[in-house]
Amino acid sequence: MCDRVRRARAKERASTTDADAQDDTRRGGASWTPTATTREGVPTRLRGAQAKGVSWCWATRANGSICGARADCENSCLPYCAEHLERGDEALRVVKHPVFGDKILIATRDLPKGYKTVYFGERKTWRECGRAGRDHAMHFRSGGGVIDPCPLGDAAQLQFMSNPGPNEVSNNRSTNVFFGDTRCPKRTLVGREFILSRDVKKGAQLLQWYGADWFNSRDIKRLDVGCDVYPAERKKRKQERADHPNREPSRAKVLGDATNASSRR
Ligand SMILES: [Zn+2]
Q1: Average pLDDT of 140-154?
Q2: How far is the CA of 112 from the centre of ligand 1 (A)?
């Protein structure tokens, strides 16, 4: 498939306010009905849908229950146990796009707004990533290089989020919460927190806005990525907005400073 029409992959880096980064049970979408079963002694957020704090594994099982294990703090600074660090969060799955043929990321069950994930990989300099790595590299702490998820394969699930097409909306965005130190040894596992900005239905794609620079620097055309099997939420049409004139439009919080296309550290 021609590069000019190939859907883009890695990543614009939106920043958020401190408030956005806080654990807040109010983030649970209005339509969200908790089905998770919590494990005694594990602090939770989102009305029991996910473990809270960095000492416990953030991953959840396909049936909606939380993992309940301690984070594997001996081998990484990420909020995942050894099992989920290796297999990824079971709430998500890497699959092949039926039309484009490349890997995408979908929800294995209904997920609530506010559900957190981590974009993780090895800490490197921009140059050390190589061409493939630069397409997927995520901005890390200022002066700390970038996060290269490629060596981790499918376990680093978030690298497979597509960019929403012109008629679609993103549903997962980065925050300014990082895992790992600015100057930790090269190739140490580090990460950046992501949070769902809207409810995501089972089977739907997780989408991240890469940023205009990502496309401009690669001369790649944005295409809609939703399909019958793995839908992507569409932008609201004018008529729908006219039907709800009092509804506040959401404020875009995209900041250009975190776009990896310009993060040549
Ligand atoms: Zn786990």
Answers
A1: 96
A2: 19
CA 28 to centroid of ligand 1, rounded, Å: 21
Q: pLDDT tens digits for 93-103?
A: 999 999 999 99
Distance 55 CA to ligand 1 centre (A): 11
State the distance from the centre of ligand 1 to the C-alpha of 71, rounded, in angstroms. Answer: 7
CATH of the domain at 137: 2.170.270.10
Structurally, how many domains does the chain consist of?
1
pTM of the model: 0.78
Domain that holds residue 200: 18-31+42-235
Q: What is the 3-state secondary structure (H, E, C) of 167-208?
A: CECCCEEEEEEEECCCCCCCCCEEEEEEEECCCECCCCECEC
62 part of a folded domain: yes
Beta sheet of 172-179, edge-to-edge order: 138-139, 146-148, 116-124, 189-196, 172-179
Structural domain includes residue 223: yes
Q: How far is the CA of 74 from the centre of ligand 1 (A)?
A: 14
* pLDDT, tens digit, 9 for 90 and up, residues 108-122: 999 999 999 999 999
